[in-house]
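Field: COMPLEX_INPUT
Field: COMPONENT_COUNT = two
Field: RESIDUE_TOTAL = 669
Field: MODE = joint
Values follow.
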Amino acid sequence: MTRKHPSGVLFVLPALLLLALFVFIPLIGVFGLSLTDFDVYALADSANLHLIGAANYWHLLRDRQAWQALEVTLVVVLVGVPATLLLSLISALMIESIAERWRGLFRTALFVPVVCSTVAIAISWRYLLNTRFGLVNHLLALLGLGTPDWLGSPNLAILAITLVVVWKGFGYGMIIVAAARREIPDELYDAARIEGAGVRQRLLRITVPMLAPTLGLLALLDVSGYWQLFAEPYVLTQGGPLGSTTSLLLLMYERGFRWWRWGTASAIAMALTAVMWLFAWVQRHTRAGWRGE
Amino acid sequence: MHVCVQELAWSSAQVRLLSAVAAGDPPDVAQVGDTDLAMLVTLHALRPQRRIADDLFPGALEVTRFDGISYGVPWYVDTRLLFYRPDILRRAGFNRPARTWSGWLRQMRAVKRLLGPGQYPLLAPTNEYEFLEVLALQQPAPMLRDGDRYGNFESTSFRQALSFYKGLYQRHLAARIDDRQLVNLWWEMARGDFVFYVSGPWNIGEFRRFLPPRDEALWMTAPMPGPDGPGASIIGGSDFVVFRASHRASVAHQFIRYMLADPQQVRLYEITGDLPSRRGVWRLPPLATDVKLRAFHTQLERVRPFEAIPEWDEIMDGMRRMAARVAAGDVSVRSATRRFDHAVDDWLAKRRELLARSMPATATAPHGREPPVDSP
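Field: COMPLEX_OUTPUT
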């Protein structure tokens, strides 16, 4: 009835509690940890735990491995997200344009990678991309295109990882985009056709602008997902060769779980959080501008 | 006695055991890789061990000792040596693998001429650090100095090992392959894709599992060659440990004693190919009669211990990454080792601090870097 009725708060409360328990409180904990030198010695005896201020962050700024990991992750985000969106859009429009009875088949086929376990997918791709016995190189050799060392050379390895990530991810966007496409009223297209608009004009002036909010949402989801790249390089390359596929999250895992340097690992986690926030902020503002047109 | 066994994947076992210790709920007994022991000892998670057998390989026993107290019972031992193709080596004009680096290089060059494209004289997977660790341990100076307080990778010793390693990859004598790119290395070896393979004892079992009995003559083992004579190798393997939190220490002890008895050690070898840690077991069949084990016995008597500190695995992993850059030609041996020493010094900072606090009398190590040490 009135604005001050507390039912709204009550409805939000369970979700807020869960968020607090699993996101906000751990985040504060990680931030606290990132200001210490928590490691295996500190675990043995808390007397070996020191508050060292921002030292972990200063170290990170001078850490070649960290910068490389940032670069690797950034490449996957900057190449992977547009590629995923483009593939989602194209496949959705193609699927909507084919005969109804084939639609289900294609939709399922393209969606299958999304629901498969990432590890299973990565292991399959490891075989497909094998330099000497992989199917990919076998086909390339048949076409006379040589046999690149997909997972063994730094430039190709990051490309291969991006390919796998995009291949696994675009089916999800496709389903969402296809649904959004169906929501666009036919009248718009009819009117455009009467006005003499061609296929290209209808695509760029009607379909894409009408899908913009959906694409924006997908971009946000993909960006936050790709920043957290972990399983694909972990299984396919273990971060190699020459660190060319060590993502920030993989680096954090190594520092934390393999070498028990929790202070450093927490600082990496906080840096990753900060970068993601920054990205989301920029994205929201550009998306607002986009919608305002 | 009723024993509940929980299987852990080897790659994540250490992480899970440490997590269990941190959570205060470790098992009674566990199998722990011997480079992982130091971290558990640092955490005061383990009970000291009594002497269970007199004929354990001394090298294996040595790496379980911290300040003179043993915290693990070697269960099986492990070292690295050469698996090779005797027939191809003979075709190249050699009866057996060389004992020195220079002789080995000569053999690899001769073998290379017999091989086709995509085939290599040597396989030493680039994601394993053990091969370079072996080369480095064969040198007089250790990899860490001043009581494991600083890196000593810029020493002539290590640089020689690294240069040899780099040469193998740059002259295309060694395949630049990590073991995830191998689909079935035993078939590949039988096909002649690799002539030498630096690996450990578990591969005896694997070769027999994947190759038919008629191919038994296609592979053989030999001790590591050294810089100028038979070379040392690393000592590895697994130890039984008993956790401090366990309430069943005496039963645990009984269990370990049982697992180390002759029949169980022989059985372990039969099932897994893992090598018994007690010399006595090597005099029993089938170990005594297996010609492919002789090289292992020889090598196990010629091992050098690694530095048993919690940071060792991290240092070795860093060394592997550094060596990969050197082998790729991205950076020179000299500047890579200098930079790596600084990284290692960073990783050891807390260790230095703790040592300085616990032993003020000996804490005279000066601040900052000194020139590398080259005397053994």
